[in-house]
Structure formats: C-alpha cells, structure tokens
Amino acid sequence: MHLLQGAGLPGPTAYTEHLRVPDLSVGTYVLAVGDVDGQQPHTEDEIYVVLRGRARLWTPGLTVDVTAGSVAFVPALEPHRFVDITQDLHVLVVFGPAERSRGGEAG
C-alpha cells in the first residue's frame, strides 16, 4: 500500500507526481485563475478528478464545465486543455499506463 502525501495540494510546479508504477501514475495539477494550460496530448490515457475550482475542459469535439467532483476521461493522443479558469483549479490526474511510459507527449 502507498499513502499519497500532499495529493491535491499545490506543489512546486503546476503538475506534481505523487506515485509512479509501471501501469499508472498519479499526480496533482494546479492552475490559478487566469493561468494558461499549455499541455500537449499525452501518449497515455488520462483521468481527471476535479478536487476544487471551476474551469472548462476543452477538446476538439467537446467543451464541458468542470467543478469539484467532476471526473473526465481523456483518451491517449486527444488534444485537450483547461480553459476559462474562474476559480483556482486543483485536479487529481491518473495516467494509465504511467505518464511518459509510451514515449512522452505526442506531437
């Protein structure tokens, strides 16, 4: 068992990894009001669990409002980013398999 210390709290960078094993990784992504989310598509599947805050999650085919309790799945290679951040956003991120285990970010 692993207890993830600090998950959901701001880290030294926007994304802080808390756990990595071959089949998944878990981290916290924190964006302040007005921040620009510059992430690129990942080569791994991703689940976002919004812990607090308010924003919109954009993909080419759909944009949805997200708030505390929202859970979103983004398949590998799908362009996506958080936009219109109106309350500081704290997101738990789960990658399967572990982030960058398939060669990093796409494109």
Automatic annotation (TrEMBL):
Domain Cupin type-2 span(s) in chain numbering:
29-95
Classification via Gene3D superfamilies: Jelly Rolls
Q: Which domain of life is it from?
A: Bacteria
InterPro entries named in the record: Cupin_2 (IPR013096), RmlC-like_jellyroll (IPR014710), RmlC_Cupin_sf (IPR011051)
Q: Which Pfam families match?
A: Cupin_2
Protein's name according to its UniProt entry: Cupin type-2 domain-containing protein
Q: Which organism is it from?
A: Cellulomonas xylanilytica
| Lineage of source species | Bacteria, Bacillati, Actinomycetota, Actinomycetes, Micrococcales
